[in-house]
Target: Peptidyl-prolyl cis-trans isomerase
Amino acid sequence: MIEEGAVAVIHFVGRLAGDDAGAVFDTSDVDVALEEGIYHNNRDYAPLEIQIGDESTFPEIEAAVQTMNEGETRTIRLDPEEAFGTHHEDRIVEVPRADLEAQSETTATEGDLVGSDLTDGIDDACTGWITDVTADTVEIDFNHELAGEPVEFEIRLLSVDD
Model:
């Protein structure tokens, strides 16, 4: 058992486990990112260091890593509530297009990111993306992009430093 305070070094692959099961949405492994077509050149692909007990990752992943041996690979499934949360309709807001464009000084385009400071419908500071644009309104979704999705993480324990 890996003790609290130890640093576990892992590679991970995050996959959807629901309707689009198997689709990779994130990884720490550059080879997987290239193979799956999700590589971004502005990202540093490197093993992830997790200090056991510091709550820097999902508790289910930390618990699994604590019981793994170096070199072992394990897949952990997380329900939406354990991962990126449930999807909430009240986190989708519609705002007047003219107001949003005046505040942001840009043209509203589907897929663009928008800060919640530009809306009256969301209290906390977060980022959403524009999901629909009409002549008069803009719809913005402030849910996490994976909200409501069950996910799987394939974890490979590379090393442990006590």
